[in-house]
Every structure is written in C-alpha cells, then in structure tokens.
C-alpha cells in the first residue's frame, strides 16, 4: 500500500507544475489538461494498482464486487481529485496558462511527451533511488571518516 501511495503522490506532484483562478470553468479546464497531458491515464493506472493490492488483502470479496467498486472509483475519483487539486493549481496557474498547456499537449510533441511521461517517471524513480542510495553511502562514509 505504501508503494502505491508513493506512486500516486508522485503522479500528483508530477502534474503540479501547472498556475491561478478558481471557478467551475477553471476546474473543467484543469480536468481537460489532465486528460490531454496523460495525467488522467496515470491516475487511473494508480487506482487499478490500488485495487490489485486491495484484492490481495481481501481475497474473500467476490470478483463482481471488485469490478463494481473499480468501475465506480475510476468514474468518480478523477473528478474528485481534480476538485481537490484545483486550489493548488489555481494558486499557481491562470486559466490562460491551462489553455496554453492544453494547446501544447495537442501538438505532436505534446502528445509524445504525454505518452512517454509514465515511462519517464518510472525510469526517473529508479534513477532517483540509485542516486539516493549513492548519496546515503557517501554520507555514511563521511560520517565514518569524522568518527561518527
């Protein structure tokens, strides 16, 4: 569960590069930006991963219940997430900024970037883990040299 939560958090943070007005129009624009940027697909994949973990934790629950729950959460969770993230994005991005991001994501380069982002994120997390391990070892060695 911790790994899935970390992945979901990373997806949320990775999409939080975006700017500031709060309104139903802004929320709809944000949802569109999530869809064209590939973020919506990533969030849905994270939900599916969570359901796989839940199924392992509760194997006695019938498959039809899982199917019903998953369909419900896939349908409503992104809307809920957009509403929850909207104040964060509105603080940093204007509706015009969202329009420009949407325009970018509708270009061939934008579509390619959206398609490749999940793979880039996965590979980046692996590199980040290696980097963290390297820094941790160097830190430990420096402490050892200092007598700690």
Could you describe the 3D structure shown?
The protein contains 6 helices and no strands. The protein is mainly alpha-helical and 148 residues long. The chain has one domain (2-117). Helix 2 runs parallel beside helix 5 (95-105). The chain is extended and about 60 Å long. It starts with a helix and ends with a helix. Residues 1-20 form the signal peptide. InterPro entries: DUF2059. It holds the Pfam family DUF2059.
* Count of discrete domains: 1
Report the portion of residues in β strands. Answer: under 5%
With helices defined by DSSP (H or I, 4 residues minimum), what is the helix count? 6
Q: Secondary-structure element sequence?
A: HHHHHH
Distance between the termini: 35 Å
**Structural class of the helix and strand makeup?**
mainly alpha
Poorly predicted regions are: 14-21
Query: How many beta-strand segments?
Result: 0
**Overall pLDDT level:** 86
Helix % is over 70%
Signal peptide: 1-20
Domain DUF2059: 79-136
Pfam families: DUF2059
Protein name: DUF2059 domain-containing protein
In short:
Helices cover 83% and strands 0% of the residues. The protein is mainly α.
Keywords:
83% helix, DUF2059 domain-containing protein
